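Isoprenylcysteine carboxylmethyltransferase family protein
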Amino acid sequence: MNILSSVIYMIWFLSEILLHRILRGGAPDDQKKKDKGSLAYIWIIILVSINTAVYISYKTKFPILQQGSLMNYIGLSVILAGMALRFYAIASLGRLFTVVVTIRKDHHIKKDGIYSILRHPSYAGSLLSFLGFGLSLNNWTGLAIAFVPVLAAFIYRMNIEEKVLTEQFGNEYAEYIQQTRRILPFIY
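Structure:
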């Protein structure tokens, strides 16, 4: 691992920890129950996946590209693109963004900007960063371990969020679901 990789990984992880610390509050305890522990579940999956992916990548040789440094730079670029998408999505949602599944006072469904295409662009950005992390390891097994469990955890979380939003907004949210995709434009 080179210095650039270390710096980008640290910025990525520290930004996520900072986001969590800043945005974790704001929901009454009865609202936090809607989260169903999914945030803790995601953090556990992330920590296990990242550590396992790094370990497996160093212990096995299943390179994505023979030119490992090129794949490292591609992966780092994908991490940065994911971070940019995530921060843009969070900024676009403004005060309605929280890390705990909750409905805030005067909550509404955001349907413009990136939210006119994707229902969960913040998760799309995070997943793009995890994909980039896996690519930067330049190991097919490491890529799968870094990405697939996190994708499954985020799908679980999106299901919880969409259930809460459907309960709150009914047909309006059901129509929004029909008009948009979750995390991948035109596909999913």
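The longest helix spans residues 140-169.
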